[in-house]
Amino acid sequence: MCVGSLCKLETRYPEAAFIVAGDFNKGNQKQGATHANFRDAYKALCPPFGKSDHDSILLLAAYRQKPKQETPVLRSTAVISYDYMTSLKHVEYGSEEYWALKSQVHRRSAERLRNLCCANRGTFIKVGQHLGALDYLLPEEYTSTLKVLHSRAPQSSMEEIQQVIREELGKELSDLFISFDVKPQGAASLAQVHKAVLHDGRTVAVKVQHPKVQTQSSKDIVVMEVLLNMVHWLFPDFAFMWLVEEAKKNMPVELDFLNEGRNAEKVAVMLAHFPWLKVPKIHWDLSTRRILTMDFAEGGQVNDRDYMRRHSINVNEISQNLGKMYSEMIFVHGFVHCDPHPGNVLVRRCPNTKKTEIVLLDHGLYQILLPDFRLSYCRLWQSLIKGDLNGIERYSRRLGAGDLYPLFACVLTARSWTSVNAGIGNTPVTHSEDVEIRSNAALYLPQISDLLNRVPRQMLLLLKTNDLLRGIETTLQTRAASSSFINMSRCCTRALAR
Q: Is 175 an annotated catalytic residue?
């Protein structure tokens, strides 16, 4: 429907499409001036088109005039925008039909976005994964569809992997390893991991960066910035430019695997008092900015209940220890592992002691919390646990939420305002409450978007981390337990007493 309709519009009004495209591509104009040109170009359009049709022509013309490699990205943006603008045009807002249609548009758009991320790889998959982790902030149709990007990242060929190893380590595989598995253990947006055996018999995991990620990432971010600006202009409620800002800041850090190795060593020392936590040892002689070699760790993913049942691992113990680990990182140390998706957190029984262990992987992205922010965040969580409404308002405002502090409290806890009033440590999560919160994410998207642009940038990765951890708890069916709040409260008390 969308592409065909767009093509018909373009054929019928080629002059208007040309005017809009020409204005869009004038050199280095400021965004405001470009938008003014768009509006002037609309005046060239004749009836019967309404505003949404003008926008559709604008988008189609824009992607038609862009460089060839950007065309699929712009085409997808055009089709998604057109779908939203036309599908709901003649339906009464708030009616059952409206919400049913909107859910269908969300689902179609999420699938297009997922396919776009898979086709463009690298930075696009990373941003798609970030969106997929925002369970209680974005409509469920988006988060459930984009979650698959954690397991569907494309792989580099063995020839490409060998070439990166030659360039970085200056040797052939046979000079470095007795064996090197051709099939990767896992592939992610920026790299893939292969199991290998060193000449001294030790088994290692070799993380190798995809060959074109370094050169392509900066271009991808520029394309995303243009698109998000364009979408925000068409849909003012969609103010997600913070995604691009975070990608600009974090991508160079994540692409430096030496930094990841340093983070791994830092957190291993920082949390050494947890005997059940294991961080694989880094092999620095076989590591560079694009290759990271570490001890190989066996285990099942932290959300794999079947694996835990087969190995007699207590899911409640795992959930409690995960909560202890993250409470310590956030409230006590202010040094937070920000990508705890299930593939990065393994569980196992130690073959020697038979005790349960958690293995923490992928240390490329950590958030450092400044002292004032961390202490305000501690006090806010203490207020949320106890139901101290004055404290909730005071510390939410300190963290930038302003008058949106009730929404901020609900977003942060993924609880209803009724539960927040009662104290989230006093009221267990129910299924109906969880459904209510997920449904409200779609209803309050403009306000949530406004909130995410208000709060300090430190908060954005914490929200992603919170949602990933909640997703694990939901899968393990341990989210209703109160023990996590006890551990959290203890860590807050320790942090404030220091």
A: no
Q: pLDDT tens digit string along 193-241?
A: 999 999 999 999 999 999 988 887 777 777 777 767 766 666 666 677 7
Which segments of 90-153 are extended strands (E)? none
pLDDT digits (tens, 9 = 90+) for 109-122: 889 888 888 877 77
Element (H, E) at 336: strand 335-337
Residue 190 near residue 198, CB atoms below 8 Å:
no
Q: Which two tokens stand for residue 403?
A: 């008058």
Six token digits for residue 131: 């969106």
What is the Cα–Cα distance from 223 to 216, expressed in whole angstroms? 11
CB-based contact 449:237 (threshold 8 Å): yes
Report whether 361 contacts 280 (CB < 8 A).
yes
Burial 343-374 (b: 16+ CB within 10 A, else e): bbbbbbbeeeeeebbbbbbbbbbbbebeeebb
CA distance 397 to 391: 10
Strand partners, 207: 193, 292
Residue closest to 44 by CA, chosen among 66, 17, 22: 17
pTM of the model: 0.78
Domain range list for the chain: 2-149+219-231, 369-497
- The rounded distance, in Å, linking the Cα atoms of 402 and 115 is 37
Q: How far apart are CA 98 and CA 159, in angstroms?
A: 51
251: Cβ–Cβ under 8 A, 6 or more apart, which residues?
123, 126, 217, 218, 221
Per annotation, catalytic residue among 339, 362, 434, 467: 339
Tokens read off for 282: 């880094």
